[in-house]
Here is the input.
Amino acid sequence: MFDMALRSLNLPGVGTKYEFETDKGDTVAIFFTKTGAIQMYTLQKGCKTPSAAEMSPVEARRLGNILTGAIIEADQESVEIAFSALADLRITIHTIFVTAAVVGKTIEELQIRAKTGATVIAVCRHDRNIINPPPAFVFEEGDAALVIGESDQIRTFENEIMVK
Amino acid sequence: MESLIVALFVCLILALVTKYLSIPAIPFYILAGVLLGKAGGGLLTNNDVSQFFSEMGLIFLLFFMGLGLKPERIASNRAAVLTSGIIDLNVNMIIGFASAYLLGFSFTESLIIAAAFYISSTAMALTSLIENRKLMLRESDTVIWLMVFEDLVLILFLAILSAGNQNLIIFFVKIIAVLGVLYALAHYGKEFLVSILDRDDELPILFTFAAVLTTASFSMYLGVPETMMVIALGVAFATTDPDAFEQHARPFKDVFLVVFFVFFGVTVDFSGGANWFVIGAISLLAVASKLISGLLTGIFIHGSALSGLEIWANTIARGEFSIALAVLYGSPVVSTTIAAMVIVTSIVGSFMAKYSGILRRGIVSRNRHKASQRRIH
Here is the structure.
């Protein structure tokens, strides 16, 4: 399904270039430079000077999330992915720092799934990620939990489990 | 040792300031060497340690250049690369040689100056394209490939200049044999190389350093200069995992090269009998001559003189390779001339590269203005 006009090119000493022209005649070019920065250029049809934005890899991924249709709530680290093929299924993935209410308790004890319907799919502890924590997993202070569910379920999770 | 520490400390400050102002650091490293060296009271002096560091800087610079040359890359869009490369080579070599010769340099000296005059700084050109956000301009592709072409010509220069009294044919056969052996090693040892590079302990970096130094040291036995040996190693390693090698060689290159620039500055002596007229003339001609080659390239490749202006702006700066030529083959007078040329062109170049957009727009709007005035009459 990629546009036929998408071109990727290796530029010696600079990095990799991706360029494509939209149906309306605008051009978008992305450069992954060797310095690690990612530059995005857009050139409006009929215009001579492109405009550019330089991004860090993290910022570029964020932009990527937005462009793939996921909605990122500006105030929280949360990504909503919409699957338009599956009756517009919308799944939210949300990161949340654990509160005092859950520190020292296990996932099983808190009955997270039974009470809210949301699932803890990963926990970030001291810059290490624990994927699929088991029911006996004990939360510690400073943990960041990655919770997946529908937006209502996430809200319930925030209000009932992670009480401040 | 103290000299080295002073040099590193000064460079650290210069690097911070130039990065903050986003201007090229190379001319300031050289200037620091000039000011703290012979010309400025002799705070810095060349010694065995700095000599060794400088040599490492040159070796790693050339190894890096070799890594960037992937044979299959050069095969693409050959016609445009060739046209722009040949224009650039001819215009700048001829102007460089003629002006040096007419200003009183000997034949060999003029040849070295012409080569240094011709070769733009790849590092500064590419940094300027990225930092000034020009990568999407069609002229950028031309500039990037021009740098690759210049690198290839430089290798040829280095080969010819370093052949000395040897029979050229035997000399080239030797180089090709070395390249063949290194290629074979890289090809048959690829899995081993990649397995080393993939490790996250000290092994990849140790291996890279040792490989470069060992290869360089073999030059003694083969009669092939170090420069050729490490370029060949780079080209051979580029067939395995060039990005990993770049990553592991970069720390060495970055530190050693800075020392190389400073202590090149130390050897330069502007005070003792430097002919300012000659130095000034060569420096200005270096700026002008790239304007001619840039305009011709713009007209031939992009059908526009304005494009030529953009190409010019990004290729004015001479840098690391010109200095390498000066260090390897230049007499003191030649080195001083090249040093001045690098300082002048890199400062003018960084300025032009930053403001080329304004310059182009200015010319376009002035032309429009003129055209509209003509219509009124």
Observations:
- The interface with chain B takes residues 10-14, 17, 19, 27, 29, 31, 33-35, 37, 39, 41, 43, 49-50, 52, 54 of chain A (CB under 8 Å).
